[in-house]
Write a structure and sequence with these properties.
The chain is α/β, with parallel strands linked by helices. It has 19 helices and 11 strands. Helix 3 links the parallel strand 1 and strand 2. Helix 2 (13-24) crosses helix 4, helix 9 crosses helix 10 and helix 18 (387-398) packs antiparallel against helix 19. 47% of the residues are buried.
Length: 428
């Protein structure tokens, strides 16, 4: 551990202790896996979410390494919560069997504050930042330092029926009004999106809050703000939930059921991730011809929406016995060539802006210009090591959205988020 690493370790004993204690209460630590420490070819264990064609990227990077190391793809569980639990408990146990980590964009600050991941410095940082969109980069920073390299990103779009709606709405109120008119005419009218008590509801609210110019936390991520813009977003969410144009299952809806309901022809509008596009083409090609896409509506007609970004950041474990090789492996997996491959073959939007200009992207991503437009002016979820706790209390307080009382709910959120920032309270 370098002198600077030791200094940071001493400066953050509380964050480290809280993170470790929380992790160790989940389950006993797993045994560490070997990483080629016997003098042979180093094994670089890549812990990453399921991605169908990522093994081909790994194979390409191993060929490029020419025997200096070998990357082994350790597939994490499909559910994000399970991914986090597995990594947190092993890192809390200082497991040397993890080298490169695929982190949800909301986890980077938590892992960095606990000193579980290494800072990207010098040439490694320069290479990670070169050509990378600022929104994804923002999710990879903590206290002004870079702790991960964005590998892929994502944004939701508005999907709408061109045969029912001549032009996409600019605001949520316009969308609600258009849906109500369709309903009165006996046509498909529903506005379908995610409203269940989970991260999808937090994403929806964050998009509305940022679009209304609101701030949930202060700029440093240390205090709960919940200003006027966030109250307007609560009002917008409540009015949408009680407008009569949502699905009856709105307060229990997650991504895939929303996709399936729109695919069946019930909806006029859908707010969802780009994965719905190829699925619709395969499942209902006739309907797919009638579906267009647009930027998610804003709260004010004169102000474009800000849409919450997702994605995965590449980090290097603080306990890796092969940090130099791990940084090299991470850079290879997320380089321009491999991001383009993953975008086209696995449907994960790239974080390197120039890839969107590639002609091969047009067929795979006919909506790429709209995606890039949203990515250039994104909404980022609150950047704080306490995000997981904030998300949990926020989704609980917002659920069901029809029961929101804007001013009262804002006060409740402010208090709960303040407690989460101080590691207080019992999470629901």
């Amino acid at each position: 551990m370098s002198d600077s690493d030791q200094a940071r370790w001493r400066r953050r004993p509380r964050a480290r202790a809280v993170a470790a204690a929380a992790a160790l209460t989940l389950v006993a630590p797993m045994a560490a896996c070997g990483t080629g420490g016997d003098g042979g070819t180093p094994t670089i264990n890549l812990y990453y979410p399921p991605e169908q064609n990522l093994q081909k990227v790994v194979d390409d990077c191993n060929a490029q390494a020419q025997g200096r190391y070998k990357i082994v793809y350790r597939v994490l569980p499909r559910q994000a919560d399970e991914q986090r639990v597995q990594m947190v408990r092993r890192l809390a146990a200082e497991d040397t069997g993890m080298d490169v980590l695929g982190l949800d964009v909301t986890w980077t600050q938590e892992f960095a504050s606990a000193d579980w991941i290494r800072e990207w410095t010098g040439e490694n940082r320069a290479e990670a930042e070169q050509g990378t969109l600022e929104g994804p980069l923002e999710t990879a920073r903590y206290e002004g330092r870079l702790y991960a390299a964005p590998k892929n990103t994502n944004v939701q779009l508005l999907w709408y029926r061109k045969d029912l709606v001549p032009e996409p709405p600019k605001t949520w109120d316009q969308m609600i009004s258009a849906a109500q008119q369709l309903k009165a005419q006996g046509k498909p009218y529903q506005v379908l999106t995610m409203g269940a008590q989970y991260e999808g509801l937090v994403v929806l609210y964050n998009t509305l809050a940022e679009s209304a110019g609101g701030r949930i936390l202060n700029e440093d991520g240390t205090e709960a703000v919940m200003d006027e813009g966030t109250v307007r977003a609560l009002d917008q969410l409540q009015r949408f939930a009680t407008s009569g144009v949502t699905s009856p299952s709105f307060s229990n809806a997650t991504e895939d059921p929303v996709r399936l309901e729109f695919q069946s022809g019930n909806g006029a509008f859908q707010v969802n991730w780009p994965f719905v596009y190829p699925a619709l083409q395969e499942a209902n090609p006739d309907l797919a011809k009638q579906v267009g896409w647009a930027r998610i509506p804003g709260v004010d007609e004169s102000t474009p929406s800000k849409v919450t970004i997702g994605g995965v950041n590449m980090a290097v474990s603080a306990y890796s016995e092969h940090p130099e090789e791990s940084f090299e492996a991470a850079k290879c997996i997320r380089n321009e060539k491999n991001q383009k491959f993953s975008a086209i073959n696995d449907g994960v939007p790239p974080t390197i802006e120039s890839i969107y200009d590639d002609p091969e992207m047009t067929e795979a991503y006919p909506m790429k210009d709209t995606i890039l437009e949203e990515l250039k002016e994104p909404a980022v979820r609150p950047l704080t090591p306490a995000y997981q706790s904030i998300s949990t209390v926020t989704s609980a307080i917002l659920s069901p959205p029809s029961a929101i009382r804007p001013e009262q709910t804002a006060n409740e959120l402010r208090d709960a988020i303040a407690d989460a920032l101080e590691s207080k309270g019992v999470l629901p």
